[in-house]
Each structure stands twice: as structure tokens, then as C-alpha cells.
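Input C-alpha cells:
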């Protein structure tokens, strides 16, 4: 399959930000969506919005920290639409902080959501893609893994772990599967709300420096719409003002 129209796309972290923007854009281009996130009321409202605009979408409450939730998301897509063409692993958190604050619980949360959540998605979708003979993983990573800066080491480590897994998966995937990483820079989302360190919260970039979630959604759509023999490996999208 080429293009976006008619493709079945599951998105994690779809309740806000990049996930929400990607859902709206892909639905407008004819994708059939299954949206997953922890906040069911957000998903219900988003699906209603998509359907009101003539799109096709369904939702299921999904916590990527639980492997069973990812299995349920993929099974729901297959049961509802008969297939799954793309899994967009977008869910992520960023309670970044200096090491000296020893916020070990935040480190664990980032590992569970940002890294383990992606692995859970691979475990759920890979057998389906193999059976179908086609499929695409889109992993939302970060420019934080490309340029290591103070306060973000653990967060960057989780994103670089996903980068490593994605490249290994790509090499094992064979001709029927595609693996894409989308690496956003500063984006104006609720991401900053997960920052628990007062020091870091006071250093958040100005809104004018940040991209819109729609900017990243277009990158996601670009990767999906390519012909099946074209594997877009990594898209880096930064604000022009970001160093």
C-alpha cells in the first residue's frame, strides 16, 4: 500500500500534542485510526472531532507501561478494521532534572514510558506485521539524543535506546517492514508539564522558539505516505532558532 488513504494507523499518546495532531492530519488524509492514551476523555473527544469532520477513528485506553495494553491496542485495530498498517509509538514523558536532585523515580518513569513502552509496541505489532507481510513502525524520538545537554541525560538515554532498537529492528525487518524515527526538537506541547524539577521548569524555551505539534505531524505523515519500498529512516525536525 502507498499513500495514507485507507491505511489503519494506531497511535499511542494520542490524547494531546504530537499524537493528537498526527491523528487529525492522518484522519484528514483518509487513514483509519485507533487512538491510545491514558486519558479516555481526551480520546473520546478527539474521536468525536475526527468523525464530525468525516474521518474514521476509534479509541481504547492505553498505558504503554503495560504490555497487555499495547497488545489490546493492536488487537483492537485488527478486530475493528481487519489489519494494522502502522504503529506510531508517540507516548513519552520528560521529567528531566539535574543528576544531583536524584529523582530516581522520574528516571524509572522515563525508562518505563519512553523506552519500555516502545518495546511493548514492537512486541504487540511485529507478529501482526509478519503475518500480513507488511507494516511500519514510526517511533517518535528526540533531538535530545543527538545533542546531549545538562539535565537531560536520562531522558536522552531513553530516546537513544529507542534509536538503537529502531536501527536494529530495521536491519532485521526485511523487505516487507519499514521502521522510521521522527526526532523533534523543541515543540510546544504538554511535555513541560511532566517536568518535576523547579530548576528545569524555569529554563523552558520560549513558546516563540518552539515548533507546533502540527509540524511534527507532517513529518509523520510524510514517512507513512511513501511507497512501500521506501523506508524513511530518520527525520529530524527542529525550530530554526534551536541550536
Amino acid at each position: 500500500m502507498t499513500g495514507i488513504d485507507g491505511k489503519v494507523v494506531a497511535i499511542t499518546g494520542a490524547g494531546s500534542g504530537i499524537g493528537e495532531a498526527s491523528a487529525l492530519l492522518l484522519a484528514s488524509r483518509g487513514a483509519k485510526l485507533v487512538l491510545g492514551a491514558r486519558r479516555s476523555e481526551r480520546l473520546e473527544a478527539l474521536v468525536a472531532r475526527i468523525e464530525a469532520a468525516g474521518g474514521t477513528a476509534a479509541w481504547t485506553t492505553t498505558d504503554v507501561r503495560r504490555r497487555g495494553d499495547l497488545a489490546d491496542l493492536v488487537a483492537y485495530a485488527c478486530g475493528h478494521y481487519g489489519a494494522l498498517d502502522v504503529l506510531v509509538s508517540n507516548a513519552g514523558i520528560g521529567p528531566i532534572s539535574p543528576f544531583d536532585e536524584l529523582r530516581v523515580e522520574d528516571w524509572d518513569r522515563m525508562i518505563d514510558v519512553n523506552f519500555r513502552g516502545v518495546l511493548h509496541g514492537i512486541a504487540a505489532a511485529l507478529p501482526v506485521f509478519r503475518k500480513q507481510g507488511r507494516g511500519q513502525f514510526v517511533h517518535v524520538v528526540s533531538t535530545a539524543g543527538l545533542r546531549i545537554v545538562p539535565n537531560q541525560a536520562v531522558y536522552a538515554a531513553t530516546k537513544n535506546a529507542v534509536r538503537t532498537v529502531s536501527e536494529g529492528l530495521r536491519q532485521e525487518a526485511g523487505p516487507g517492514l519499514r521502521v522510521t524515527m521522527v526526532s523533534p526538537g523543541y515543540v510546544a506541547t504538554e511535555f513541560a508539564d511532566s517536568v518535576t524539577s523547579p530548576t528545569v521548569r524555569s529554563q523552558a524555551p520560549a513558546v516563540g522558539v518552539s515548533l507546533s505539534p502540527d509540524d511534527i505531524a507532517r513529518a509523520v505523515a510524510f514517512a507513512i505516505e511513501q511507497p512501500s519500498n521506501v523506508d524513511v529512516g530518520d527525520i529530524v525536525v527542529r525550530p530554526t532558532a534551536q541550536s
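Strands lie at 8-12, 32-37, 56-61, 86-89, 135-140, 177-184, 234-237. The chain is about 45% helix and 15% strand.
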